[in-house]
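Continuing from the previous page of notes. For each protein in this section, the sequence appears first, followed by its structure tokens. Read the first protein now.
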Amino acid sequence: MNILVWHVHGSWLTSFVQGPYDFLVPVTPERGPDGLGRARTWEWPPSVREVGPAGLRGAGIDLMVLQRPHELGLAEEWTGRRPGVDVPAVYVEHNCPHESAVGTRHPLADRTDITLVHVTHFNRLMWDNGRAPTTVIEHGIIDPGHLWTGEEPRAAVVVNEPVRRGRTTGTDLLPRFARTVPLDVFGMRTEGLCGRLGLPPDRCRGRDLPQGDLHPAMARCRLYLHPVRWTSLGLSLLEAMFLGMPVVALDTTEVREAVPAGAGVVSNRFDVLEDAVRRFTADPAYARATGEAARAAVQARYGERRFRDDWERLIKEVTR
């Protein structure tokens, strides 16, 4: 089976392409947003093949996996076939609704021929899905191993473009938490972040690392801090739990489902969050025990095998 899928979210796609199919990933000469091709920072199997727009028109395609509204038109333009009409298609919605938690209608709400796949139950609840058939396939993470050492009494934060995303990802909360524990903020475009927040180097470090260096660097931090207000369930939170890190997180979107009691501290109260940060920082044994509970919880719910089984069932259903 040949599956057409654009390279949009590298972490999610890395798990998705482990399945037993051939994956056609569009590539353009400039490798722009609609033609990134194969990943440069993740390891993908040989079953992932780059195909240019001209090559897609004659390619055998059994399923289209769409992730952005404009891909509906792009797929028809580049392949000559209509998603959901000429070729089976599903649409993966990675995000929470942006405008309103109760009044945002999904771009596919009027389509009954394309299954809308949400990555969390919270997202399916909040979007107005209209007539679209919906399902939920929760994230699946390739286990990076129990790498936590916690040797540095610091908190790891992972967020891409923290300045642009601002309050959405809780960037404005970092100075408050930095008073309690020094921060390592990992992610793209974190250079200069700490200076913009008015934080001295001893309280905050921006770190844009290659993907292969990210997990070991995170795992040297004592805890993982997730100050996100309004995004879908962050893969970085789940990856931190796989690393064996204790987590402290805002009680927003799907976080409560992902972090059960004993695996970390989840709250919207600053005093509770700051007390948790202090205790993990001061007590490495407590941090280790909580991180081990976090790892066990995330392995049970967000493992790669469950993710692949869920997708295989859906793929068989929509291509039957």
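Done with the first. The second protein uses the same format. Note its length before scrolling.
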Amino acid sequence: MTHGTQRRVVLTGATGFIGSRVAELLLRDPAWQVRVVARRPPEALIGAGAQWFRADLAAPDSLRDVCVGADAVLHLASLVGGDADACTAVNVHGTARLMAEAVRSGVRRVTQLSTAAVYGRGPHRGPEVGDVEPSPVSAASSTRLAGERAALDAGAVVLRPGLVLGAGDRWVVPALAELLRSVPARWDEGRGLTSLVAVEDLARLITATLDAPGLPGPSVQHASHPRPVRSGDLLNALVAHGVLPAVPDRDLSWPSCLEHLAASGSRVSRRQFELLAQDNWFSSERVWRLAEVPYDPDPLHHMASWAPWYRAHVRAAAPG
């Protein structure tokens, strides 16, 4: 133990969409002292009791001694934009150095946040980990998969969530809004099943990995809600809460959807459309059971609390 009776956890990505929720949970838990790794001081987190370690994953040498005295590492940071070299610097070399520091310091529990996007193009219909080989199609996904290997070598639990929803989501629901403007119809009858998870629930799962004796490491775990959601049901929930306008009462086959997308000039790519509207779901019940984390039967049970943020953000993102 360190810091009196507290244990110390090293946290990367603490100011991000998912990491900020995890930081909030940890800072409310008296069992943990939080060491935030960031280039600049996260004033709000420091004010809430976090320590700050100045480092940059893009400059691996800055990570030296980051894990000294730590009991656990939660590696939630990654680069999802930028070119291949930038992604490699952060997601591969930065992760490798962080994991090497964890091993050198004798850290007992390491968790890394990855993504189900490492599997590449679907359809994916409920595979367990190991049933399908990763086949990433972007620099971000390829380098995150490479970073997984370093984490597993350090004994980590690697979590691969699908789509993550909640206040602060600047990709999933904004992309759905743009797609409805570009392809105004029910896409392939709204049948596509996708894995998603509420950011609040994913944060609870991540923090639970710190004290889950039944969750083995090294291992890879799918980390979405166990029940996949139809694209039509997701759109209907967003319409019901005033986030999106009503979906036009017409169906388009998938080939017709792609034709409309190509003609629209949308910023949303075909690959992104596939992720949002086709079958892309992964068997995810195991990790919740092993981590002993309960989940609501409804994957969209937080929608009412998300709706005000989404209404403001989607409206702000819409073209004038």
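What the second structure shows: The chain has eleven helices and 15 strands. The CA atoms of residues 163 and 196 lie 4 Å apart. We return to this in next week's lecture.
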